[in-house]
C-alpha cells in the first residue's frame, strides 16, 4: 500500500533557507529516511543529508521531525496519519551547513576536554580485574551511539548559544558518570564536571532522556548520580567532616583530582 | 514569544522563525502540572495558616504532625517545645516536607518546566534571555536536597506513628453506638492515613539522594553486597519516583481534607470496627 506523503523539508544553508514541500510516494513499512532518500533520487538530487547504517546504530541521521529530535532511520511513517504533514528540519542547536546537515564540531571539542580513563597498576599476574556487577553498571552508558540528539534538545545550549563554552552537555555527563563509577579509574572528575563541564547548569528537565534513541536513562542514571557525587565533593559539610575524621567509607580513596 | 538571538534563531542555526515545529499538544503536560501544583499550594497554604480543625481524635492531619506548637489537646504526642510560637503549628514542621519536595529532582523538573518554562517542553524554545541553571544563589541551594531527605525520613517515621495512633479508640463524643469507645478502632480515616503513609514512604525511599546514600556513591558494588542490594531496591522504586511524588501529594491533601471535615463536624467518620 503506497500513498503520497505530504513531506516538507528545510532547504538552505547558513545564509538562509526555508521549509519546502516535497510530496513523495511512500510505501508501508518505510521510515522518514526512506522518504528523504526518495526525494533525493526523484526531486532534489542536491539535497544534503547525513546518513549511514539505516539501523539506528551509527547516529548519523539525526534531525528534527515535526520539531522533535529523532533519528530519521528509526522514525516510522506508520506512527503518523497518512494525511499528516511531516516537517523535517536539521538539528536546531548546531550551526547548519546545508539542508539537513549540521556542524556537530561542538561535541567533539567537548569530548577532547574530558580526561580519559587512567587505570591503576595491574595485579601481580599482569591482569586487571573487575567484578561482573561493577562491569554491568557502566554498560548502559556504553550504548550511546553519539547521535547528539540529547545535545540538540538540551535547552541549556539550544536556547543559549553563549552557554556552549561553559557546558559540555548530557552526552558528556554520561561519560563523566561512567568514568566516576569505574572501579579501576584513578581520576577524580567531580570538580571538573561541576566546573569546566558545567554540570550545575543542568536543571534536570529530562529532555535528553526523552529523545535518546537507545533508551539510556541519562538523567536518572548519569546526571543526577553525578550531581550527588559533586555534592559529596563540594556542598556537603558532613561528608567533608566524615572524610577528615576518618569515618567516611574509603571506597573512592586513591583517586587524584583532575 | 520567540526566542532571542542566543537561541534557535541565532545566526548560525538553520533559519526557522517558529519557536517550535511540534504539532502535538506539548503544552498539556506543563499546563496540568501548573494547575495541579498551584491548587495544592493554595490549599496547603490556607490549611497551614488556619491553625485549627487539624485534629479529630484519634486522627492528626499530616500538615500538623508532629504538632510542636500550641496545639489542641491530644494532638501533641511529642510535647510542645514551640508552644510560644504565635502562628500556626503547621508552619514549624511544614518547612521540612516542603523543602524536601521543592529540592526534589522530580519536582524540579516539573516546576522548571511548568512554572519557569525553562523549557516548557522538549524542543520548545524557552522565553528567557539568559540562563545559569543551578550554579548561583538561590538555585545552587538545590544541592541541600539530601539534608531535606534526612528530615523527610524523620517526618515519615512520625506519620507512621500517627497511623498506629489512628487505631486508638475514638473518644465518647464521636461514638455512634454502644461500646465504640473501647478497644482498637479503624475507620475510613485510618485507612486513608495508611494509604498516605505508604505513598509517603514510597516517595521518600525512591528519592535520588536516598539512592545515592544507600549505595549509589560507591564505585565497587562488589565490595559492598548489602549496600548493592539496597541500591537495587531503591533503584527499582526510583524509576517511579515521579509517580509517587504525585500520588503522595494527592494523598496528603486528601487525608488533611478528611480530618478537616471531621473536625468541623461536616461529616462523621466511617467506622469499620
Automatic annotation (TrEMBL), chain A:
Q: Which key words tag this protein in UniProt?
A: 2Fe-2S, 4Fe-4S, Iron, Iron-sulfur, Metal-binding, Oxidoreductase
**Could you tell me which residue ranges the 2Fe-2S ferredoxin-type domain spans?**
5-92
Entry keyword Iron-sulfur: yes
User: Which pathway is this protein assigned to?
Assistant: Carbohydrate metabolism; tricarboxylic acid cycle
A molecular function GO annotation: electron transfer activity
The cofactor named in the record is:
[4Fe-4S] cluster; [3Fe-4S] cluster; [2Fe-2S] cluster
SUPFAM superfamilies in the record: 2Fe-2S ferredoxin-like (SSF54292), alpha-helical ferredoxin (SSF46548)
Pfam families in alphabetical order: Fer2_3 (PF13085), Fer4_8 (PF13183)
Family matches, as InterPro entries: 2Fe-2S_ferredoxin-like_sf, 2Fe-2S_ferredoxin-type, 2Fe2S_fd_BS, 4Fe4S_Fe-S-bd, Beta-grasp_dom_sf, Helical_ferredxn, SDH/FRD_Iron-Sulfur, Succ_DH/fum_Rdtase_Fe-S
Q: Which GO biological process entries does UniProt record here?
A: respiratory electron transport chain; tricarboxylic acid cycle
Q: Which GO terms describe its cellular component?
A: plasma membrane
Query: Member of which family?
Result: Belongs to the succinate dehydrogenase/fumarate reductase iron-sulfur protein family.
Cite the PANTHER family for this sequence: SUCCINATE DEHYDROGENASE [UBIQUINONE] IRON-SULFUR SUBUNIT, MITOCHONDRIAL (PTHR11921:SF29), SUCCINATE DEHYDROGENASE IRON-SULFUR PROTEIN (PTHR11921)
What is the protein named? Succinate dehydrogenase / fumarate reductase iron-sulfur subunit
UniProtKB/TrEMBL annotation, chain B:
Q: Per the UniProt record, which residue ranges are transmembrane?
A: 26-46, 82-100, 147-167, 187-205, 244-267
Source superkingdom? Bacteria
Alphabetically ordered keywords of this record: Membrane, Transmembrane, Transmembrane helix
What name has this protein been given in UniProt? Uncharacterized protein
Organism listed in the record: Nocardioides alpinus
Amino acid at each position: 500500500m503506497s500513498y503520497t506523503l505530504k513531506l516538507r523539508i528545510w532547504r538552505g544553508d547558513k545564509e538562509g533557507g526555508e521549509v519546502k514541500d516535497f510530496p513523495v510516494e511512500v510505501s508501508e513499512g518505510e521510515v522518514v529516511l526512506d522518504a528523504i532518500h526518495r526525494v533525493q533520487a526523484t526531486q532534489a538530487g542536491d539535497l544534503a543529508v547525513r546518513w549511514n547504517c539505516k539501523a539506528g546504530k551509527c547516529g548519523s541521521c539525526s534531525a528534527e521531525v515535526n520539531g522533535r529530535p529523532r533519528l530519521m532511520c528509526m522514525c516510522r511513517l506508520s506512527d503518523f496519519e497518512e494525511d499528516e504533514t511531516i516537517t523535517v528540519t536539521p538539528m536546531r542547536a548546531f550551526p547548519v551547513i546545508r539542508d539537513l546537515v549540521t556542524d556537530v564540531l561542538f561535541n567533539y571539542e567537548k569530548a577532547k576536554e574530558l580526561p580519559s580513563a587512567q587505570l591503576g597498576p595491574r595485579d601481580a599476574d599482569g591482569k586487571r580485574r573487575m567484578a561482573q556487577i561493577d562491569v554491568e553498571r557502566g554498560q548502559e552508558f556504553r550504548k550511546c551511539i553519539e547521535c547528539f540528539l540529547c545535545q540538540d534538545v538540551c535547552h541549556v545550549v539550544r536556547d543559549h548559544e553563549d552557554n556552549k563554552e561553559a557546558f559540555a552537555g548530557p552526552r558528556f555527563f554520561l561519560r563523566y558518570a561512567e568514568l566516576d563509577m569505574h572501579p579501576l579509574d584513578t581520576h577524580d572528575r567531580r570538580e571538573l564536571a561541576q566546573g569546566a563541564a558545567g554540570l550545575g547548569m543542568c536543571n534536570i528537565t529530562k529532555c535528553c532522556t526523552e529523545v535518546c534513541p537507545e533508551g539510556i536513562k541519562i538523567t536518572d542514571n548519569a546526571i543526577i548520580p553525578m550531581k550527588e557525587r559533586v555534592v559529596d565533593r563540594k556542598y556537603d559539610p558532613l561528608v567533608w567532616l566524615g572524610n577528615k575524621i576518618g569515618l567516611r567509607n574509603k571506597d573512592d580513596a586513591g583517586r587524584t583530582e583532575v | 514569544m520567540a526566542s532571542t538571538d542566543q537561541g534557535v534563531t541565532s545566526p548560525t542555526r538553520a533559519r526557522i522563525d517558529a519557536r517550535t515545529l511540534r504539532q502535538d499538544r506539548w503544552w498539556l503536560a506543563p499546563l496540568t502540572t501548573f494547575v495541579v501544583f498551584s491548587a495544592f499550594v493554595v490549599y496547603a497554604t490556607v490549611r497551614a495558616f488556619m491553625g485549627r480543625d487539624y485534629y479529630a481524635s484519634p486522627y492528626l492531619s499530616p500538615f500538623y504532625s508532629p504538632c510542636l506548637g500550641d496545639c489542641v489537646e491530644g494532638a501533641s504526642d511529642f510535647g510542645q517545645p514551640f508552644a510560644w510560637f504565635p502562628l500556626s503549628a503547621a508552619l514549624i514542621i511544614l518547612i521540612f516536607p516542603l523543602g524536601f519536595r521543592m529540592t526534589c529532582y522530580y519536582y524540579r523538573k516539573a516546576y522548571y518546566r511548568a512554572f519557569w518554562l525553562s523549557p516548557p517542553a522538549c524542543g520548545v524554545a524557552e522565553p528567557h534571555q539568559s540562563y545559569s541553571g543551578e550554579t548561583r544563589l538561590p538555585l545552587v541551594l538545590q544541592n541541600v536536597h539530601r539534608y531535606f531527605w534526612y528530615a523527610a525520613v524523620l517526618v515519615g517515621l512520625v506519620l507512621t506513628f500517627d497511623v498506629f495512633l489512628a487505631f486508638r479508640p475514638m473518644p465518647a463524643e464521636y461514638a455512634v453506638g454502644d461500646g465504640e469507645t473501647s478497644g482498637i478502632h479503624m475507620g475510613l480515616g485510618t485507612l486513608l492515613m495508611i494509604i498516605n503513609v505508604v505513598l509517603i514512604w514510597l516517595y521518600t525511599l525512591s528519592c535520588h539522594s536516598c539512592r545515592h546514600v544507600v549505595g549509589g556513591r560507591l564505585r565497587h558494588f562488589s565490595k559492598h553486597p548489602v549496600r548493592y542490594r539496597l541500591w537495587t531496591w531503591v533503584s527499582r522504586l526510583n524509576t517511579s519516583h515521579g509517580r509517587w511524588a504525585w500520588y503522595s501529594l494527592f494523598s496528603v491533601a486528601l487525608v488533611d481534607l478528611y480530618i478537616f471535615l471531621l473536625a468541623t463536624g461536616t461529616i462523621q467518620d466511617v467506622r469499620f470496627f
